[in-house]
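Trying the structure run again after the queue cleared.
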Amino acid sequence: MWRRRDSTEVTCIACGEQVSRSSAREYDKHGDRWTREDKEFEHLCKPCYQDICHQPRGDLETVLGQIETGGCSRAQFLERYVELVEAEYDRPDSRE
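Done. Tokens:
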């Protein structure tokens, strides 16, 4: 299999380290890195990629995308997250 040499540097979204794109791992927040049309990928350095959980995340990315983070504190972010999750699980049709 042929490998492309790319000298572009990317920033690891986990630690902020600058690494060459060829040394980074692509991260697709939608969980489907094989569908590549019209997508911009984020990147992780190898150590951060190895540290992440590779289990399915369900709707986590969707919930995080619904939270308006514009300048909010960590406490505000977490409060909004809890509100969204509780609203989802309090719906009668979401229980099994």
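The chain has a mean pLDDT of 80. Worth checking whether this holds up in the mutant runs.
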